[in-house]
User: Fold this.
Amino acid sequence: MGPSRSPDASPSSPSAAVPTFDAMLASYRDLVTPAIIASIPDREPKKHLYALVAEHLARSGKGFRPALCIATCRAFGGRAENAVPSAAAIELLHNAFLVHDDVEDGSEYRRDRPTLHKQHGVPLAVNTGDAMNAMAIRVLKANLALVGPARAWRVLEEFDHMSLETIEGQAMELGWIRDNDCDTTEEDYLLMVLKKTCWYSFIHPCRIGALVAGHEPNDLESLNRYGHTLGTAFQIQDDILNLTGSRTMYGKEIGGDIFEGKRTLMLAHLLRTSGAQDKARLKAFLGKPRERRLPREVAWVFERLAARGSIDHARQVARGFVAKALAEFDATFGSLPRGPDVDFLRALVDAVMNRST
Amino acid sequence: MGPSRSPDASPSSPSAAVPTFDAMLASYRDLVTPAIIASIPDREPKKHLYALVAEHLARSGKGFRPALCIATCRAFGGRAENAVPSAAAIELLHNAFLVHDDVEDGSEYRRDRPTLHKQHGVPLAVNTGDAMNAMAIRVLKANLALVGPARAWRVLEEFDHMSLETIEGQAMELGWIRDNDCDTTEEDYLLMVLKKTCWYSFIHPCRIGALVAGHEPNDLESLNRYGHTLGTAFQIQDDILNLTGSRTMYGKEIGGDIFEGKRTLMLAHLLRTSGAQDKARLKAFLGKPRERRLPREVAWVFERLAARGSIDHARQVARGFVAKALAEFDATFGSLPRGPDVDFLRALVDAVMNRST
Assistant:
């Protein structure tokens, strides 16, 4: 956690040199991290609750979500301070989801370390996720003083929608796995991604940033389109990295999605384009409990995804969403005065595809 | 779900005959149930989310918590309608906790049916609990129109405190079990009960009822004492029923707490008063994973609890809290005009001890 920045060193100061994308991301993180740390209650029970919260939050991610919130707030002429509590709450909610998702998906690695439930057991992990969720609501109380009770409620409504959409997307995904649904189409996948990824990771961070900047609540539709297209590109790329990344860079087990039987765009493509024999073999593999899926079977699925062009297909679809996101960026932010924050929102579109982590 | 009541049929109408405690409880439930049902989104995904939510909510409990909220609101001169959204949200939050607690405790029965995770698996159960938690926040939005944004935020703060206290109490209990802590004292137990039971089941329902009735936020301390003493008596009695009740009446597996290794007042008493040999045997039993605890070992623990007077001791402690709760009732509600709601809050103290379910 860095020292607090003086106004002159702020990345939106016109006198500063043009900051790189990574430097901007770090500067947003520096604004939000103290608020996140401060949200952890300094009291018992530590060993079985708040130490776990702190441990999970310290596995800091890249901080895309709070960055989007603050950048959008400043792009619309708002002050970063007004966005900080909301950005911190978004990151807390994100961590709450991660912990529960890892339990629900049976994931073993997160940010290159064993998942919280692998380290501390499912009971404490579920409870710790609940705590971070409650902490997010608590942090939002600061909005009362910053933007007044009526607008603070509007922000809370965004959180409420964010939570329920994410939970619905997760239910879709878990349901497909539980029922071994092998007819999931690419359209089904894209709806799940809108619900599970786009709303909470992209659309709402932008909307909330605009709201605390004083933007009209009824005038947020174009942010939905920017966040939707960008988030979809992000998730497809995330699925590709799960297959092709290196674990040290990516932080999760490589091929973990295949082990978990996740319905990705690639798997939907493979199921759609495979002959009867391969399809039956895929269905049998996906119908097994996770712990009975063998590494050589996972390797076979990977080989099929590559050979059938499913990975290339996903790359192409992702690039299509990137092109749309660029157009939405122009429509939404193109007429605003340029500056480091608007530049960041533009650069994020490329970063989503070009990342290796 | 009954039809909505006309004002004349309202239990607080002075012209009505004196209603029984059970009739009052049913009348509060009739006010709140429609709001709970209406909170379930009528959209997909149903099979893997909202059908599970509906299924869990339909296993309706006795409805003590919403009843406390509405009764306190009316006792302080407020209108029941103003308390209904908050009471519904309390019941949703309660159900969210139940589902996660059952996962965390490895419980097998709830309200005489298999727990949600036993029926649908841990992943969907954890996600369904998250949904009911988010739905609770959504329902509270109605307070904006009923009591204005500032007081609606005060109610939300009560919810926030309610959640985090409950989560802290659960962390204490899970931590004792995970670490096989055999030095848990009766004082530790009572602190855990304050956190895990009293705040969310008794204190906050009363405080929120008073708040929506227009009571001063700074004048709620005596409600804390009423809820604390009543809630402690309730939980000790709950633990006793877990050992001595009949499953059909009580709805959970009898002796389940011993299987789960729960640290109760009775177990703390037994550990404190046992000789070295029994204590070592108890410690060895509690140190095993749940699935390796044998029914004959559970029977032995039960026999020791009875023989050592641990159950009688717990009954006596519970009776002490009932006496305190009656004194707190007099201090808090004694000077208010009598009526069915005030009578209900008085009768609840006896009902907590005299129940068999």
User: Anything to note?
Assistant: Residues 198 and 240 of chain B are 17 Å apart (CA to CA).
